[in-house]
Amino acid sequence: QDNSFEQFIINYCNEKLQQIFIELTLKEEQEEYIREGIEWTHIEYFNNAIICDLIENNQTGILAMLDEECLRPGTVTDETFLEKLNQVCATHQHFESRMSKCSRFLNDTSLPHSCFRIQHYAGKVMYQVEGFVDKNNDLLYRDLSQAMWKANHSLIKALFPEGNPAKINLKRPPTAGSQFKASVATLMKNLQTKNPNYIRCIKPNEKKAAQVFNEALVCHQIRYLGLLENVRVRRAGYAFRQPYEPCLERYKMLCKQTWPHWKGPARDGVEVLFNELRIPEEEFSFGRSKIFIRNPRTLFKLEELRKQRLEDLATLIAKIYRGWKCRTRFLLMKRCQIVVASWYRRYA
Where is the Myosin motor domain positioned along the sequence (predicted)? Predict the structure, then answer.
């Protein structure tokens, strides 16, 4: 019910995670169809980049305004910080304040004078401005950092790298908000280099009870997790996509023309393969560099055919090996019999 600076930066991190989720699932997927030349009707979705910009913009963002208040000379209070926000963010559609210049909120009695409200992707959150400036300063005296750095315990020493005499910086230490913003930027950079798989968990009720589903709670989570847009894109799009070369390499044993080697472009090989298997044309599309398969059942069918074919090939290999082994034994016995017979005839 009472949200301060800590909850504000936590929600900022959630906004950034939601942004990268949108980038990698909704935006990137639709752009990939266009890049690959697949016929596609764009599906609209809410992009929360505007909320992230409200918080992290270097000139007009809330964190920038907070840092400016913490670093400027003169009397600085939480109220002066809120006044600055009212001046800079007054017309922003996702920012609300009782003291805002925008008259839409002047009659909003649910919003106290010492608070501001941000309309996050998951809903509106009201923040108590009290304590923002003090918590953002996060001042630690330099001599305390140096004392901690001199500790014999390796963990304590590692927690205070700024205490290293070789790295003494006479500048004012960075604020808590700027440190958190830098950490979030590093996290986003790290996530963008990975190939993430998302698991969205739905909490069915507040009591952790089995077989109890609170419909309003479930619907709320589905909305703010962005699952509706995600399902729309997935249903309209293709469940599976893969470059032609690995696709041909994986399924080439299903067609006599592509097995064991296909001489020619991989795309032509995949086309011959799919025609041989008689897969309906509406189930797949050829992109510039990838094959797109619409329904999972088509992929499951290919995997099942591949599994059967591998079993047949394993049986064939086993049969040839057993035949070779028996023939080798037979030829050895035949040679031995000839030697024994020749010696016996000579003896007789």
Answer: 1-307
305 in any annotated domain = yes
One domain for residues 103 and 183? yes
pLDDT > 70: what percent of the chain?
94
What is the model's pLDDT at position 108? 58
**Under 8 Å between Cβ of 187 and 197:** no
Q: Which domain holds residue 262?
A: 240-319
* Whether 215 and 79 share a structural domain: yes
- Count of domains observed in the chain: 2
Report which residue type is found at 219: C
Looking at the structure, tell me whether residues 230 and 246 fall in a common domain: no
Do residue 72 and residue 53 come from a single domain? yes
Looking at the structure, tell me whether residues 246 and 232 fall in a common domain. Answer: no
Q: What is the mean pLDDT of the chain?
A: 83
Q: Which amino acid is present at 62?
A: I
Q: What angle is formed at CA 257 by the lines to CA 251 and CA 259, rounded to 5 degrees? A: 50
Q: How confident is the model at residue 103 (pLDDT cuts 50, 70, 90)?
A: very low
Identify whether residues 310 and 190 lie together within a single domain: no
> Are the CB atoms for 116 and 85 separated by under 8 Å?
yes
Residue 154 forms part of a structural domain = no
**Using CA atoms, how far apart are residues 19 and 119, in angstroms rounded to an integer?**
15
Higher pLDDT, 235 or 10: 10
Task: Answer with the residue of higher pLDDT: 103 or 201.
Answer: 201
**264 located within any domain:** yes
Q: Are the CB atoms for 274 and 23 separated by under 8 Å? A: no
Say if residue 320's pLDDT is above 90.
Answer: yes
